[in-house]
Amino acid sequence: APPHHKEGHSDPHHKEDYAHPDQHGHPDQHAHPEHSHHHDLVRCSGIEFDAITLDEHGVTYFIKDDHLWKGYRGSSEFTNQTFHELHGSIDAAFRMHHKVKPEDHDRVFIFKGDHVWSFYNHTLKDGFPKLINSEFPGIPNELDAAVECPSGECKTDSVLFFKGSHVYHYDLLTHSVKEKDWPAVMNCTSAYRWLERYFCFQGTKFQRFHPVTGHVSEGYPKDVRDYFMKCPDRGHGDKTREAHFGRCSGKPFDAFTADDEGKIYAFRGDYFLRLDTKRDGYHYWSITSNWKELHDHINAVFTWDHKMYFIQGDQVYIYKSDVHYTLVEGYPKPVEEELGVKGPVDAAFLCGDSHLVHIIQGKRMLDVDMSETPRKVVKEWPLPFDHVDAAMCGAEGIQVFIGDIYYEYRSPMLLATSRMQPFPHKTRKELLGCDN
């Protein structure tokens, strides 16, 4: 948000002295001669952004005064070339996540003074702009920042609004507001959610924070120019690490799984990445950033009964999936005690609503009934492979990963009994969308 607010009601239709779009959406060079030449702000010089948000296509917008940047590189344009009805600076923006109300889901909400605009595909929704208090009752005017918080990351689909030292948690289902005091997260000039990570920007610095507790992660603040834009002689990437752990490195994955929310995870070494985030982009993160008790690579992982089971050596860790992952008390435990199988294992998967987890060890697959106590192997199958790196069951059936290729099977029985090896698929190209 701009550093200086003027309290009081604003006129959403007031046109300030900025370039306005012509009928083709380009700045009108005649409306305001003093702004007839677009002056490109250099964001690498150190800019305090008023708002940062994704749009419905996964493009990140960085907004400062009447300028807008699309993505992490490139020059700016006037904001009203993209959002024609906006003129001058804004206070805050976010992309709505609210699937139970499709007419609002994925819309970009932009705040200025005491009004809010709602856009989809750069088109203003009928009836907007509106007073903030009529669209979001209990939320103050002259906001500093705002960010969406989907169910599973917050308890319900929500929006976090920031003003000074106050944080307003707005529940989209009940329209209730909880005001919070987060001393570590205050005076955000903009806020941004990307791939389940939440960031508060304060000038050219930013913090990563937890959207439920307000806890700020260690190692912050950091400089925006090293992470959110391509600047000469700046950055944080490790080319050696990217070559080994990055999405397109071609190295074998250790494990795959999909949780109850439909999030698909791939694990390689000490890192993981989400495979269902194509729209907003991919990024690999350290495993400990999500599951803090896990260190080093894992052997297998599967999801059952709203919990994720990680097998590491001869130990199993169980995490609750409800609003961020928390280790179940009393774990880790030996794999043999929990699943009736001696570790280590090569892979594990569970299909749909089944209560059978299929554990792969060498050339055999062991079926364990998760509904029984104590758990034990109820069936053993021979496999047509000498070794399997990972396996996963999803909408396309079972995928078995060996090196940089994978095979597809319709069912666990076909995996074990099929006499013909199916067509091999290239993991990098077909699953990860890599060009190489």
Automatic annotation (TrEMBL):
InterPro entries: Heme_transport/Cell_adhesion, Hemopexin-like_dom, Hemopexin-like_dom_sf, Hemopexin-like_repeat
Gene Ontology CC terms, in alphabetical order: extracellular space
Keyword Mitochondrion: no
Domain of life, source organism: Eukaryota
Subcellular location: Secreted
Main location: secreted
Stretches for region Disordered: 1-39
Hemopexin repeats: 87-139, 140-185, 186-231, 250-294, 295-342
Range of residues in the leader sequence: none
Key words, A-Z: Glycoprotein, Heme, Iron, Metal-binding, Repeat, Secreted, Signal, Transport
Molecular functions per Gene Ontology: metal ion binding
Entries under SUPFAM superfamilies matching the protein: Hemopexin-like domain
Alphabetical list of Gene3D superfamilies matching this protein: Hemopexin-like domain
Family assignment from sequence similarity: Belongs to the hemopexin family.
Function statement: Binds heme and transports it to the liver for breakdown and iron recovery, after which the free hemopexin returns to the circulation.
Protein's name according to its UniProt entry: Hemopexin
Species whose genome carries this gene: Acipenser gueldenstaedtii (Russian sturgeon)
